[in-house]
Amino acid sequence: MTIVPIVFCFDDNLELPAGVCISSLLIHALPETFYDIFILHSGNCRFITGRLNELPLHYGNCRITYRKVGKEFEHAFEIRGITVAAYYRLLIPELITEYDKVLYSDVDVIFRNDLATFYKSTDLTDYYVGGVSTPYSDITDYVENVIKTKITQYIASGNLIINSKKIREDHLLVHFKRVALCKWKYQDMDTINIVCAGKIKLLPPWFCMTCTTFEILNDANQKYYPEDVADYARKYGIIHYNGSKPWKQYCLNFDIWWEYYRESIFFDPKFYYDFYSAKMNEYDLLPLWKRVKILLRYFKTGGVVKK
Q: Where in the sequence is the domain holding 190, given as residue range(s)?
């Protein structure tokens, strides 16, 4: 059996997407994979007594441990509706000492493969963290002029593999906490890229498929990734809804999220009906030209709607 430690950080308002996210992880677990799941949360959270605790009973190949975070980032800078829970990933080496190497994931994510082989085979000996960068992005100017790094070296923080042992040995936590005090536009993501610069392992695109990644991989003329790498990422990559959220509105790959929601123990027929009923009403109110445009875009992207 392979034990794969994985950490999530969220608060009460993300309990539902967290449940769907973790369900997708466990659905794809191979028989010999066991996920040791840690949830970092504030002392005010109430979900620790809720339905998340049913997941180990339903799937059996995991356990869930809750770790309360103190007041380290109580007054940290918040922007774009992202709460202080986003900073908790910076504390993983300090709060989860059972493992030298751990995975981290946001909860606005859908997993589509088993992670045991990736976890075992990823060597982080000379690195603090591993993540996925993009060859270009709409934040390129900010990254290169403010963070002072190339966009191809700047990793997304939604899915990470963390060398907790090296971070502890090199006393990096104090630097995380110091740098995080600044009002960075992308908060924890900027902090990780600044502090870990020079010791970041770049991972294949499937490990964190943001909207930008999908745009690149679906461009027939893209030259950044070999076709076999692109094809695997499109079929099995971890989908990160880093923009619009599928449980709130139509967005790229929204239909995939709802498929996993329907399969999960969190499925509520009324919530499902209310969402699609409201969206159909919105669609019917659109002018004909816009409805045709949406349909054309849907078929062009292979069955996903991008607003």
A: 2-204
Half-sphere exposure of 281 (CA within 13 A, CB side): 6
Q: Looking at this protein, which amino acid is placed at residue 113?
A: N
CA dihedral over 105, 66, 21, 107, signed as positive or negative: negative
HSE, CB side, 13 Å, CA atoms: give it for residue 158: 24
**pLDDT above 80 for 304:** no
Q: Which helix (H) or strand (E) holds 160?
A: strand 159-163
> Which of 204, 235, 267 is a domain's end point?
204
Question: What does residue 158 show for φ and ψ, rounded to 5 degrees?
Answer: -70, -30
**Residue 149 exposure: Cα atoms within 13 Å on the Cβ side:** 21
Task: Report the 3 state secondary structure along 112-144.
Answer: CCCCHHHHHHCCCCCCCEEECECCCCCCHHHHH
Beta strands in 32-94 (DSSP E): 33-41, 62-68
Q: Distance between CA atoms of 71 and 150, rounded to whole angstroms?
A: 33
* Boundary-marking domain end, from 163, 189, 204: 204
Whether 110 contacts 239, CB under 8 Å: yes
Of the candidates 262, 263, 245, 264, which has an alpha carbon nearest to the alpha carbon of residue 253? 245
Is 27 found in the same domain as 122? yes
Tens-digit pLDDT profile for residues 93-118: 999 999 999 999 999 999 999 999 99
Q: What is the pLDDT of residue 124?
A: 97
Q: Are 102 and 201 in contact (CB under 8 A)?
A: no
**Among the listed residues 68, 103, 107, the one whose alpha carbon sits nearest the alpha carbon of residue 88:** 68
Unique residue bearing structure tokens 């998340």:
52
